[in-house]
Amino acid sequence: MTYRLTRDGTPTVRYADLERDLETRGISRPSLVDVRDSVLAIRRSKSMVLDPHDPNRRSCGSFFLNPIVDAATLARVERAVGEPSMPRWPDAEGRAKLSAAWLIERAGFRRGEGPEPVTLSTRHSLAIVCREGAQAADVAAFAREIKARVEERFGVRLEPEPVLWGELSVGP
């Protein structure tokens, strides 16, 4: 990752959650400090900031990438879902990015639930949380289960964000 910082520069805000948070705080021309404060607040609300008092603190982070699908796959998913409110972000090439978190929840997984000692976060359905005694194999097995159920229900293959190898691989 490369950052280009300019002294007293104006931040570029292109993230919907960040835009909403700044708007809620009444900030139309944010400083870098304003953006930092908003990013930390947003990440904290999703248990993505280390906090010893957060029950989701032992999270593996955002585990799956949002899938990008072609127009035919999007139409098939829309028919399977039957919900016009399904989040999607079209691109200029006729594809669309879908919300992995939304697909996971619609495939029957609920926040805070899972095959102990791993569960989904109570705050963010993309995050797998390790409870006491959890091992990497538990995380990989739960991730495989999520991936299989989403693919079975919607025909969309989720890709893990972390790179796993060997016996822990979540596979193609």
Question: How does this structure look, described?
Answer:
This protein has 172 residues and is of the alpha+beta class. It contains five helices and six strands. Strands 1-6-5 form a three-stranded antiparallel sheet, covered by helices on one side. Strand 5 and strand 6 form a beta hairpin. The longest helix is centred in the last third of the chain and has 19 residues, at 136-154. Helix 1 crosses helix 2 (32-45). The chain has helices spanning 16-24, 32-45, 71-81, 100-106, 136-154; strands at residues 59-62, 68-69, 88-90, 96-98, 118-120, 127-130. The protein is globular, with a radius of gyration of 18 Å. 35% of the residues lie in helices and 11% in strands. The two termini are 26 Å apart.
Summarize this entry quickly.
With 172 residues, the chain is of the alpha+beta class. It is 35% helix and 11% strand. It has helices at 16-24, 32-45, 71-81, 100-106, 136-154, and strands spanning 59-62, 68-69, 88-90, 96-98, 118-120, 127-130.
The pLDDT mean sits at 89
> Proportion of β residues?
5-15%
> C-alpha Rg, in Å?
18 Å
How far from one another are the termini? 26 Å
Gross morphology is: globular
Low confidence ranges: none
Please give the order of strands in the largest beta sheet.
1-6-5
Summarize the amount of helix as a percent range: 25-40%
Return the structural class. alpha+beta
Largest sheet features: 3 strands, antiparallel
What sequence of helices (H) and strands (E) makes up the elements? Answer: HHEEHEEHEEH
Number of strands: 6
Oligomer: single chain
Count of helical regions: 5
